[in-house]
Amino acid sequence: MSGVPPLVLDRDSAVPLSVQLADALRDAAAHGTVRPGDRLPSTRELAGALRVSRTVTAAAFDQLLAEGWAQSRRGVGTFVVGAAAPGRATPAVAPPDVAARPRLVDLRAGSPCLEVLDAAAWRRAWRTAGDQEPDGYPEPAGDPGFRAAVTEHLLRHRGLPAAAEDVLATAGTSAAVAEVARLLPPGSRVAVESPGYGRAAAALRAAGAVVVPVPVDDDGLVVDALPPGLAAVYCTPAHQYPLGRRLSAARRVALVARARAEGWWVLEDDYDGELRYDVAPLPLLAALDPGVVVHLGTASKILTPTLGTGWLVAPPEVRAQLLARRIETGTRPARAGQRVFAALATGGDLARHLRRLRRELVGRRQLVLAALEAGGCRAEGDPAGAHVLVPLPDTGTETAVLAAAAARGVALDGLGRHRTHEPASGPRAGLVLGFAAPARAELDRALDVLTAVLREASLQPL
Question: What is the pLDDT of residues 9-33, one digit of tens each?
């Protein structure tokens, strides 16, 4: 055949474009638009005509070749070798119940704000990373350029002086927690905040640790409640997740002192420590005593999880054990995301992005506070990060608000999901309200829904 057959792709469909394309070519054969023996356009030609990437067209051709519907002849092209019977092609549409279901606007905590990510800077960083030669050898500690970029980032944005050799690349916070936990003897007791970050607790359990819940109040982790016999304590001192409070100065000193005296590690998760709006970012526990603190950072909240990268600053003996384990098992974090992060940092784009991100999140937080006030509620938590806590009277109200919002197209997160134990005083209820993920227009609509749902729940100011 000559040219490109008439094909239509629905870019708003939930069905991947490559699946749509494979279905459309089968349908063309079924209706005689293409016939056995016809040569199909090249993946490059088809991609240009349809204005899609070659990844899309190549994936569609791979599917047709695997089914035996088409055949590739080296140096000649791809040919149709059979025609599907009419009516047998799978339509490239989502099932009716899925297609009719509106996409929820996500007001759950944990997702980054992609709307302020400069697309040109993003593409430029990937090109810079791609200009480097492929790896011919493993680098268990991480890409050297990335480690250097992290040390500069920590010094400028978190006030932590560290050398590049102090830093190990990780695949993110949860992966780093699991890595460190696997260095502990099986069955070691690790304290975690409750309510707290469930993925960290799950990573600890998966690594063979016994999770010990410890309560949190308005001053952060209750250090006096830490039991004896611990191997480590996992905490989020700069912006406690999910309550949004900071660990007080007195408790910071007490926590580090106990770790030093009792011989355990502090796993300091600084997941969004760069995002503070009232004062400069708070000092790190690792700055108080780098001999007992394992500092964990991530690119997921300040940039995107696409990079799949984070960092760890730890005492020398911990780093040595981690490197030995990585060499022994052949496991190490992928370097592609590390190189992109380094390119963003080295060219100044990361610092510019952080300034834009802080400005954007401050404005969004004000919108959230106004919506909550209109709904008869208030927010708790420091002016930092990308979520607030909305106290609710009881768990029944929490469940009702979540359901009512979901019915109107808004996904909310309840505090109940973050509890690792039931306190003697009874479970605390509330919403963990994130405001980074939606586009501004979606956020405005979702906050209108939130206000209405809270009003209908007959909530009084708490």
Answer: 877 776 788 888 888 887 777 666 6
| Side-chain-facing half-sphere of 436: CA atoms under 13 Å | 26
Apex 380 CA angle, 241 and 213, nearest 5: 35
Cα–Cα distance, 181 to 190 (Å, whole number): 9
The residue behind tokens 């040109």 is: 120
Note the pLDDT of residue 421.
65
Q: How many domains does the chain have?
A: 3
DSSP secondary structure, 450-462, as one string: HHHHHHHTT----
Q: What pLDDT, on a 0 to 100 scale, did the predictor assign at position 89? A: 41
Is 195 within a domain? Answer: yes
- Note the pLDDT tens digit of each residue in 123-155: 999 999 999 999 888 899 999 999 999 999 999
- pLDDT at residue 310, rounded to an integer: 98
Does the pLDDT at position 462 exceed 50?
Answer: no
- In angstroms and rounded to an integer, the radius of gyration of the C-alpha atoms of the chain is 26
| Unique residue bearing structure tokens 């993946």 | 43
pLDDT digits (tens, 9 = 90+) for 225-250: 999 999 999 999 999 999 999 999 99
Could you give phi then psi for residue 299, rounded to 5 degrees? -90, -5
The answer to whether the CB of 150 falls within 8 A of the CB of 156 is no
**Domain limits for position 315:** 119-350
Q: What are residue 193's phi and psi, to 5 degrees?
A: -70, 145
Q: Which residues contact 415 (CB under 8 A, 6 or more apart)?
A: 195, 242, 389, 392, 398, 428, 429, 430, 431, 432
CATH of the domain at 160: 3.40.640.10
CATH number, domain of 413, equals 3.90.1150.10
- pLDDT tens digits, residue range 427-457? 789 999 999 999 999 999 999 999 999 999 8
CA 173, CA 295: separation in Å to the nearest integer? 10
Residue whose entry in the numeric block shows the structure tokens 């047998």: 88
Would you say residue 11 lies in a domain? no
Instruction: Please indicate, yes or no, whether residues 288 and 207 belong to a single structural domain of this protein.
Output: yes
User: Which tokens hold the place of 445?
Assistant: 């609509």
Is the domain of 321 the same as that of 383? Answer: no
Per-residue pLDDT tens digits for 163-196:
999 999 999 999 999 999 999 999 999 999 999 9
**Angle, CA of 313, 314 and 320, to the nearest 5°:** 120
CA distances from 95 to 14, 15, 134 (A): 10, 10, 42
Answer whether residue 63 is part of any domain: yes
Domain boundary among 350, 379, 397: 350
The single-letter code of the amino acid at 147 is: R
